[in-house]
Design brief:
- The complex is a heterodimer of chains A (325) and B (424).
- Chain A has 325 residues and is of the alpha/beta class.
- Helix content of chain A is 37%, strand content 14%.
- Chain B is of the alpha/beta class and 424 residues long.
- Chain B is built from twelve helices and 19 strands.
- In chain B, a hairpin with a 2-residue loop joins strand 18 and strand 19.
- The chains are: A alpha/beta (325), B alpha/beta (424).
Chain lengths: 325, 424
């Protein structure tokens, strides 16, 4: 099952993790390592001609540096042409409907359109109507599938290295996701991805930032950080946003730190082998102490490196799987 | 020249009639109801139910202000096609119907169209702003049948108390849209598992229930009549059932979508299933049906809320709330309430005819000799798929497209004139 070349991708788009099967997720994870190798070439050209002559459009309605850069770099390393459209800078988008804007983009013969949007469902409604391959780069609080895939790849790499088992998966691995679950598309995509891969997921955050009935997604839920991380193999801290405090969702950053920060004191409740992850950008010393972010337990920069490879893998699969659009 | 509706199964809930009978119409009135009658022109109703023209006390016809969505004319045609001969229009137009001249405008347009009876509800507060009450005595004098700020609640309990008292003095019922907007972060759907899964901001049931409760308390305090619109939750049913037991003068309605669909209907971010209050959960659907069966819920009203395809063809969170209902209400009532055994056909038709008419004192919703010849002929067995393209409404926003339903209006007669026929 480890040979990615024998399995095929059958979807036109990558909209969310919820609808993917375990096999599909594993196909992406197994396709990514060859692209990790491309980016890591010490000498020579960090590029392959997989998408030569193709047009990849990154279309971001929300400001984003890291995700957009990662997608653009992925496209360029596959030799695609890239075009970048921002809602804030483009007259194309102002006052125009989402479908009309995409129709205009498609008139320029786009092959892949990567969309980041502040509202849930944007990628899905576009994918259903238009011919381009749509990649969801984050839609409101709904999903951020490539983030979950790069996180899973990062976790799997580490588990395989630690267990010295090149076939190891995430079955039975326990992941604690800490912070603002309610507003987090990263949390939702990770919940789907990790549970499908057989991992145990425990969510932890202030009661006010845990969405209703989230346990029905197949996860444990607690407001006690110690309990959440006590048996965790991986501690995944989410970015906390100050404006949530103004919405009366927690009293102060000071109190958030007291209850939920991952730092050298709180992490003592976790097993010694537990790794620290974060989707970035980090609020240093807020949800995650600086020394842990920079320390040996942190795999945060591996996440970033894997992000480019996973996005290369997805673009390759979407274009080269032979799915008619 | 007379019109004879012959050989139908006549059901008139107001007089408890349910039997084979002919209806003879002369001019705008019913001349006779009986067996073996003769008339000049015959409408054969064999195999059909003949009932009073249906009454919907909650529709949005968008005129003036939003004529791209619906007009009084297109709304009336949709009503006729759905078997309705009397509708109460909501005042959340632009400008809102908050003075006598605007009430008269609605009547004039409806008269020009000449299709179904249109009874305007006027605003309870000026500009629907929830601050100063409208001139209700004058509004009543020119024909407003109720007052409401539909689309929003009156947030100030002080203002609502005075509105209830003053409206009651004027002989007007206040129609309450119960919603505490402060309890949601720009919510767009029911708060529950599905909102968590879809990442959409939720509207907890308590948004509705806390205001149903408050409004009932204010009705109790003032002794005034209160009608609660479009209840959607099990909790609202329980609060109203309890209030009625205490003798509070409260009535309520629900809409067909609340006894038909749950929030599973918007799993694909389909904006046609976005309405306010939102589709709830199976437990609520069951409670709404129970409330209809035990009389807690007094009538069915569609909350017909037309929007253009352009309005709805956007990101879910940007789409306006609302679903059309006039042309699907009867079939859904037959399928979800009658076929499933919740209500008898007679009782179901009462909730669409004499019951809503009685709530607002409308001279409609019954068949009687000498009474207005507003009659609907429907074939309860005609199976068909909901086809929004066939709607007479300008709007197509329904999540029911393609759903197989049974029960089709064959003819709608208003004031003796056939205003809709399915075979024309």
């Amino acid at each position: 099952m480890n040979d990615a070349s024998e399995r095929t991708w059958t979807r036109k788009d990558l909209v969310g993790i919820e609808e993917l099967s375990r096999d599909e997720i594993e196909l992406v994870l197994d396709t990514a390592p060859q692209f990790v190798a491309v980016s890591a070439r010490d000498s020579g050209i960090k590029k392959v001609p997989v998408l030569q002559g193709r047009l990849v459009v990154t279309w971001f309605y929300e400001p984003s540096t890291r995700t957009r850069s990662s997608f653009e770099l992925a496209a360029k390393r596959l030799s695609a042409d890239t075009l970048s459209i921002s809602a804030s800078t483009s007259s194309l988008v102002k006052g125009e409907s989402l479908h009309d804007t995409l129709a205009n983009i498609e008139a320029m013969h786009s092959d892949i359109v990567v969309i980041r949007h502040r509202y849930a469902g944007a990628a899905q409604i576009l994918a259903e109507r238009h011919d381009s391959h749509i990649i969801n780069a984050g839609d409101g609080r709904h999903e951020h599938p490539t983030q979950a895939l790069l996180d899973a790849l990062t976790m799997r790499d580490r588990i395989r290295a630690v267990r010295k088992d090149p076939e190891a998966g995430l079955d039975g691995v326990r992941v604690a996701i800490i912070g603002d679950i309610s507003h987090s598309r990263v949390a939702r995509s990770n919940i789907w991805c990790l549970t499908k891969l057989g991992a145990e997921v425990v969510l932890c955050g202030p009661r006010t930032l845990l969405p209703p009935r989230v346990d029905e997604m197949g996860v444990e839920v607690t407001t006690d950080l110690k309990e959440a991380i006590s048996r965790a193999d991986i501690i995944y801290a989410l970015r906390i946003q100050l404006e949530r405090q103004q919405r009366c969702l927690f009293p102060s950053l000071r109190e958030y730190i007291r209850l939920f920060r991952i730092d050298s004191t709180s992490i003592q409740a976790a097993p010694e082998h537990a790794l620290v992850m974060h989707p970035g950008p980090i609020n240093r010393d807020l949800e995650l102490a600086a020394d842990l972010a920079d320390g040996p337990r942190s795999v945060i920069l591996e996440q970033v490196a894997n992000g480019v490879a996973v996005r290369m893998a997805i673009m390759h699969l979407l274009i080269n799987s032979g799915v008619e659009t | 020249m007379s019109l004879l509706i012959k050989n139908g199964h006549l059901i008139d809930p107001a007089s408890n009639r349910s039997e084979t009978a002919d209806v003879l119409i002369r001019g705008k009135r019913i001349e006779a109801i009986g067996k073996n009658l003769d008339g000049d022109k015959v409408l054969d109703a064999s195999g059909c139910i003949v009932c009073p023209g249906l009454v919907d006390i909650h529709v949005h016809f968008r005129e003036p202000g939003y004529e791209t969505k619906e007009t009084i004319e297109s709304g009336c045609r949709a009503a006729a096609r759905g078997g309705f001969t009397s509708v109460v229009t909501m005042p959340n137009t632009d400008p809102p119907i908050d003075d006598a001249g605007l009430v008269e405008f609605v009547y004039r347009r409806a008269h020009e169209v000449g299709c179904v009876n249109v009874y305007p509800a006027a605003c309870a507060t000026k500009g629907r702003a929830g601050q100063e009450m409208t001139e209700m005595a004058e509004l009543k004098a020119v024909g407003a049948v109720a007052v409401t700020d539909d689309g929003s609640d009156i947030d100030s309990s002080w203002v609502l108390r005075r509105v209830l008292e003053y409206a009651d003095m004027c002989g007007l019922v206040y129609l309450a849209h119960c919603e505490d907007r402060s309890l949601s972060e720009e919510g767009v759907m029911n708060e529950g598992y599905n909102s968590t899964r879809l990442g959409l901001p939720g509207m907890p049931k308590a948004m509705e229930e806390s205001r149903v409760d408050r409004n009932v308390r204010l009705a109790e305090l003032t002794g005034a009549r209160l009608h609660i619109q479009h209840i959607s939750t099990a909790g609202s049913v329980a609060i109203i059932r309890d209030a009625k037991t205490r003798g509070v003068r409260v009535t309520c309605e629900t809409a067909p979508h609340y006894f038909t669909l749950t929030d599973d209907a918007l799993a694909d971010f389909g904006t046609n299933a976005k309405m306010n209050p939102p589709l709830r959960e199976a437990v609520d659907v069951a409670a709404i049906k129970q409330g209809l069966a035990d009389g807690t819920i007094d009538c069915i009203a569609t909350d017909h809320a037309p929007h253009t395809i352009t309005d709805k063809d956007v990101e879910f969170q940007l789409a306006p709330f609302g679903v059309v209902g006039l042309e699907t209400a009867l079939a859904l009532t037959l399928a979800e309430l009658v076929e499933s055994g919740v209500l008898t056909i007679e009782r179901a038709l009462a909730l669409l005819t004499c019951a809503p008419a009685a709530l607002l004192g409308l001279a409609a919703g019954r068949l009687s000799e000498g009474g207005p010849a507003d009659v609907t002929v429907l074939d309860p067995n005609a199976e068909h798929a909901v086809d929004p393209k066939a709607f007479a409404s300008l709007a197509r926003n329904t999540p029911l497209a393609g759903r197989t339903v049974r029960g089709q209006v064959r003819a709608t007669v208003r004031e003796g004139k056939v205003v809709y026929r399915s075979d024309e």
